[in-house]
Design a protein that fits this description.
With 184 residues, this protein is α+β, with helices and mostly antiparallel strands. It has 2 domains: 3-76, Arc Repressor Mutant, subunit A; 88-163, Glutaredoxin. Helices cover 37% and strands 13% of the residues. It has helices spanning 17-27, 37-48, 53-62, 67-76, 96-100, 103-114, 156-163; strands at residues 6-8, 14-16, 88-93, 127-132, 144-146, 149-151. The strands form 2 sheets. A 4-stranded mixed β-sheet has the order 4-3-5-6, covered by helices on one side. Strands 1-2 form a two-stranded antiparallel ribbon. Bound molecules: FE2/S2 (inorganic) cluster (FES). FE2/S2 (inorganic) cluster is lined by residues 93, 95-98, 134-138, 141, 143.
Protein backbone atom coordinates (compact mmCIF):
# COMPACT_ATOMS: atom_id res chain seq x y z
CA UNK A 1 0.00 0.00 0.00
CA UNK A 2 1.65 3.25 -1.10
CA UNK A 3 1.76 6.29 1.12
CA UNK A 4 -0.23 8.21 -1.48
CA UNK A 5 -3.09 5.78 -0.91
CA UNK A 6 -3.19 6.46 2.80
CA UNK A 7 -5.20 9.07 4.62
CA UNK A 8 -3.77 10.07 7.96
CA UNK A 9 -6.46 10.81 10.51
CA UNK A 10 -6.00 13.30 13.28
CA UNK A 11 -5.56 10.50 15.81
CA UNK A 12 -2.41 9.36 14.07
CA UNK A 13 -3.91 6.20 12.59
CA UNK A 14 -4.46 5.44 8.95
CA UNK A 15 -7.03 3.91 6.64
CA UNK A 16 -6.50 3.58 2.90
CA UNK A 17 -8.68 5.34 0.37
CA UNK A 18 -10.08 1.94 -0.67
CA UNK A 19 -10.84 0.95 2.92
CA UNK A 20 -12.66 4.22 3.56
CA UNK A 21 -14.66 3.83 0.33
CA UNK A 22 -15.72 0.30 1.27
CA UNK A 23 -16.61 1.28 4.82
CA UNK A 24 -18.62 4.25 3.53
CA UNK A 25 -20.52 1.88 1.21
CA UNK A 26 -21.50 -0.17 4.26
CA UNK A 27 -22.55 2.96 6.12
CA UNK A 28 -25.21 3.56 3.48
CA UNK A 29 -27.01 0.43 4.73
CA UNK A 30 -27.07 1.08 8.47
CA UNK A 31 -29.00 3.63 10.53
CA UNK A 32 -26.07 4.37 12.86
CA UNK A 33 -22.37 4.50 12.04
CA UNK A 34 -21.57 1.98 14.76
CA UNK A 35 -23.82 -0.50 12.94
CA UNK A 36 -21.07 -0.91 10.37
CA UNK A 37 -18.42 -1.75 12.97
CA UNK A 38 -18.05 -5.46 12.23
CA UNK A 39 -18.11 -4.92 8.47
CA UNK A 40 -15.49 -2.18 8.81
CA UNK A 41 -13.25 -4.48 10.86
CA UNK A 42 -13.69 -7.23 8.25
CA UNK A 43 -12.87 -4.82 5.40
CA UNK A 44 -9.60 -3.76 7.00
CA UNK A 45 -8.72 -7.32 7.97
CA UNK A 46 -9.36 -8.55 4.41
CA UNK A 47 -6.82 -6.05 3.11
CA UNK A 48 -4.20 -6.27 5.84
CA UNK A 49 -4.64 -9.77 7.23
CA UNK A 50 -5.35 -8.50 10.74
CA UNK A 51 -6.48 -5.40 12.62
CA UNK A 52 -3.70 -3.53 14.38
CA UNK A 53 -4.29 -1.08 17.22
CA UNK A 54 -3.57 1.72 14.77
CA UNK A 55 -6.15 0.42 12.29
CA UNK A 56 -8.69 -0.07 15.05
CA UNK A 57 -8.27 3.54 16.17
CA UNK A 58 -8.66 4.70 12.58
CA UNK A 59 -11.88 2.71 12.13
CA UNK A 60 -13.27 3.91 15.46
CA UNK A 61 -12.57 7.50 14.51
CA UNK A 62 -14.26 7.06 11.14
CA UNK A 63 -17.34 5.54 12.79
CA UNK A 64 -17.52 8.15 15.56
CA UNK A 65 -16.91 5.46 18.17
CA UNK A 66 -14.43 5.20 20.98
CA UNK A 67 -11.55 2.80 20.44
CA UNK A 68 -12.63 0.98 23.60
CA UNK A 69 -16.14 0.44 22.26
CA UNK A 70 -14.82 -0.94 18.97
CA UNK A 71 -12.25 -3.07 20.79
CA UNK A 72 -15.11 -4.67 22.71
CA UNK A 73 -16.82 -5.61 19.46
CA UNK A 74 -13.58 -6.87 17.89
CA UNK A 75 -12.82 -9.01 20.94
CA UNK A 76 -16.33 -10.46 21.07
CA UNK A 77 -16.23 -11.38 17.39
CA UNK A 78 -13.57 -14.10 17.40
CA UNK A 79 -12.87 -14.01 13.65
CA UNK A 80 -11.32 -10.58 13.92
CA UNK A 81 -7.59 -11.05 14.37
CA UNK A 82 -5.94 -8.48 16.60
CA UNK A 83 -2.47 -9.87 16.07
CA UNK A 84 -0.70 -10.90 12.85
CA UNK A 85 -1.67 -14.30 11.46
CA UNK A 86 -0.17 -16.65 8.88
CA UNK A 87 -1.23 -16.88 5.24
CA UNK A 88 -3.93 -19.35 6.23
CA UNK A 89 -5.72 -19.53 9.53
CA UNK A 90 -6.70 -22.98 10.76
CA UNK A 91 -9.93 -22.59 12.74
CA UNK A 92 -10.09 -25.82 14.69
CA UNK A 93 -13.47 -26.69 16.23
CA UNK A 94 -13.15 -27.94 19.79
CA UNK A 95 -16.84 -27.90 20.69
CA UNK A 96 -18.79 -30.87 21.96
CA UNK A 97 -19.62 -32.85 18.79
CA UNK A 98 -16.07 -32.55 17.53
CA UNK A 99 -14.71 -33.38 20.98
CA UNK A 100 -16.84 -36.55 21.13
CA UNK A 101 -15.49 -37.42 17.68
CA UNK A 102 -11.90 -37.25 18.85
CA UNK A 103 -10.82 -33.73 17.96
CA UNK A 104 -8.32 -33.59 20.84
CA UNK A 105 -6.24 -36.34 19.29
CA UNK A 106 -6.46 -34.76 15.84
CA UNK A 107 -5.43 -31.38 17.25
CA UNK A 108 -2.41 -32.91 18.98
CA UNK A 109 -1.31 -34.46 15.70
CA UNK A 110 -1.75 -31.20 13.78
CA UNK A 111 0.25 -29.40 16.46
CA UNK A 112 3.01 -32.00 16.14
CA UNK A 113 3.08 -31.81 12.34
CA UNK A 114 3.15 -28.01 12.26
CA UNK A 115 5.10 -27.37 15.44
CA UNK A 116 2.51 -24.95 16.78
CA UNK A 117 -0.08 -24.81 19.54
CA UNK A 118 -3.22 -22.68 19.66
CA UNK A 119 -2.46 -19.02 19.05
CA UNK A 120 0.82 -19.71 17.29
CA UNK A 121 1.98 -19.25 13.71
CA UNK A 122 4.30 -21.62 11.89
CA UNK A 123 7.85 -20.47 11.38
CA UNK A 124 7.32 -20.06 7.62
CA UNK A 125 4.24 -17.92 8.32
CA UNK A 126 1.96 -20.32 6.42
CA UNK A 127 -0.47 -21.34 9.16
CA UNK A 128 -1.92 -19.96 12.37
CA UNK A 129 -3.80 -22.41 14.55
CA UNK A 130 -6.81 -21.11 16.50
CA UNK A 131 -9.62 -22.84 18.42
CA UNK A 132 -13.18 -21.92 17.50
CA UNK A 133 -16.60 -22.86 18.83
CA UNK A 134 -18.95 -24.95 16.70
CA UNK A 135 -18.54 -24.41 12.96
CA UNK A 136 -22.06 -25.67 12.27
CA UNK A 137 -20.97 -28.92 10.67
CA UNK A 138 -21.46 -31.21 13.69
CA UNK A 139 -22.81 -34.02 11.50
CA UNK A 140 -19.41 -34.17 9.80
CA UNK A 141 -17.26 -33.87 12.95
CA UNK A 142 -14.46 -33.45 13.63
CA UNK A 143 -14.04 -30.42 11.40
CA UNK A 144 -11.84 -27.38 10.85
CA UNK A 145 -11.48 -24.48 8.45
CA UNK A 146 -8.19 -24.08 6.62
CA UNK A 147 -8.38 -20.62 5.12
CA UNK A 148 -11.73 -20.57 3.32
CA UNK A 149 -12.03 -24.37 3.08
CA UNK A 150 -14.08 -26.48 5.45
CA UNK A 151 -12.37 -29.82 6.07
CA UNK A 152 -14.69 -32.46 7.52
CA UNK A 153 -14.41 -35.99 8.95
CA UNK A 154 -10.86 -35.27 10.05
CA UNK A 155 -8.63 -38.28 10.50
CA UNK A 156 -4.93 -39.11 10.41
CA UNK A 157 -4.93 -39.57 6.64
CA UNK A 158 -6.50 -36.17 5.96
CA UNK A 159 -4.22 -34.21 8.22
CA UNK A 160 -1.15 -35.96 6.84
CA UNK A 161 -2.28 -35.11 3.31
CA UNK A 162 -2.78 -31.50 4.31
CA UNK A 163 0.19 -30.90 6.56
CA UNK A 164 2.53 -33.86 6.24
CA UNK A 165 4.86 -32.08 3.85
CA UNK A 166 5.00 -28.83 5.78
CA UNK A 167 8.50 -28.38 7.11
CA UNK A 168 7.70 -26.16 10.02
CA UNK A 169 8.33 -28.37 12.96
CA UNK A 170 9.96 -25.74 15.13
CA UNK A 171 7.53 -23.64 17.11
CA UNK A 172 7.32 -19.97 16.34
CA UNK A 173 6.94 -17.61 19.26
CA UNK A 174 4.60 -15.35 17.31
CA UNK A 175 1.14 -15.37 18.80
CA UNK A 176 -2.12 -14.69 17.05
CA UNK A 177 -5.73 -14.42 17.96
CA UNK A 178 -8.40 -12.04 18.97
CA UNK A 179 -6.43 -10.25 21.67
CA UNK A 180 -4.98 -6.84 20.95
CA UNK A 181 -1.32 -6.06 20.32
CA UNK A 182 -0.99 -4.47 23.72
CA UNK A 183 -2.13 -7.66 25.47
CA UNK A 184 0.72 -9.83 24.13
S1 LIG B 1 -19.10 -29.11 17.39
FE1 LIG B 1 -17.64 -28.99 15.81
S2 LIG B 1 -18.83 -28.38 14.11
FE2 LIG B 1 -20.26 -28.40 15.72
Amino acid sequence: MSKSQMIQTDVGSALSVDEIAEIDAELAHVPYKSGAAIDALKIVQAKRGWVSDESLRGIAKHLDMSAEELEGIATFYNLIYRRPVGEKVILFCDSVSCWISGCDDIKSKISKLLGVDYGETTKDNLYTLLPVPCLGACDRAPVMMVGDDLVTHLDDKKIKELFGKVKTKSTSSSKAGPKSEGSQ
